[in-house]
TrEMBL record:
This is UspA domain-containing protein. PANTHER family: ADENINE NUCLEOTIDE ALPHA HYDROLASES-LIKE SUPERFAMILY PROTEIN, USPA DOMAIN-CONTAINING PROTEIN. It comes from Elysia chlorotica (Eastern emerald elysia). Residues 12-132 form the UspA domain. Coiled coil: none annotated.
Amino acid sequence: MAARENDQPFVVVLAVDPSEHSEFTFKWYLKHIHQSGNQLHIVHVPEYWGDVARIMTPAKLHEMYEMTRRETDRLRQNYIEWSMQHGVQDAKFSSPHGHDAWHEIVKYAEKVGAGVIVIGSRGQGKLKRTFLVIGSRGQGKLKRTFLGSVSDSVLHHSHVPVVVCRNKDLEH
């Protein structure tokens, strides 16, 4: 996946959550795919509390929002620090809010340039080279059907290539 000379670098959107699956996926990306010049965007969609807000007390809802904010801040700090330790100095971390994590991830990939035509100095158009990397928990078909799967939904709704990374040693 190395970029040829004069080509646009890859814009990589790496979706993470607080799980060890995401940590594995991040390390796997760095080891097997990352090239200098790639633009790494780490995206985490925080827990959505809107559906249960009506049944919680305001104090409990505030507590849940604060817990989610602290978790997001911890992830931001960890992934940016890990990126810098591996020589990725310009990694960006974003935490868009929304009901469906898969939708926010796909929307973010589009926002950072998926499928955008870049006009070069000679007036030639090129597609920005973007792809998504996401981890998978390795759930079976039945569990995925009832509980849903963010990686499955990203894979089916994304307009850019998706790399789904699964660590078979972490399957439950």
